[in-house]
Design a protein that fits this description.
It is a single chain. Helices cover 61% and strands 0% of the residues. With 147 residues, it is mostly helical. The chain has one domain.
């Protein structure tokens, strides 16, 4: 399916009146993100901005390309929040980007009052994107690792 660039849709919306929204949705529905794909589109957009390749993210997250691809495309839904955290860390997401990705996937955001999450937040804020280094920090504080 041919995609319409987001900036093209943004230009259409710039001068649109509320009463024209029905027509906009009808004409552009095939280009709209559905809830199931929102995580995928967001994840890809952030990676594109950072110039990071998906295959590298899978490798740094410690998962096969086939498995990682199914998670990112939401063809296989996981209930393991750590898998999504590992993808975000491997993709060099900051705290806000990670929270948005977690939320879009259906998980709770990183929570400062949760000791394990506080360690992960601190790592992200200090641009520590090595999962093994984060696991060492978690172990120092007797918390469960990501791997």
């Amino acid at each position: 399916m041919q995609q319409k660039p987001t900036d093209e849709l943004n230009k259409i919306l710039d001068n649109m009146k509320p009463e024209e929204l029905d027509r906009y949705f009808a004409e552009n529905r095939k280009y709209m993100a559905d809830e199931k794909r929102a995580f995928y589109y967001y994840f890809r957009n952030v990676l594109d901005e950072k110039g990071i390749k998906l295959k590298d993210v899978y490798a740094f997250a410690g998962m096969s390309e086939a498995f990682g691809s199914k998670l990112v495309r939401m063809e296989k839904h996981t209930k393991d929040r750590d898998l999504i955290l590992r993808l975000c860390i491997a993709a060099h997401f900051n705290w806000d980007e990670t929270n948005r990705a977690l939320k879009l996937y259906g998980f709770s955001e990183l929570y400062a009052k949760e000791p394990r999450d506080a360690c992960i937040i601190t790592s992200l804020n200090n641009r520590i994107f090595d999962i093994y280094e984060i696991d060492e920090l978690l172990a120092e504080h007797k918390l469960e690792g990501l791997m």
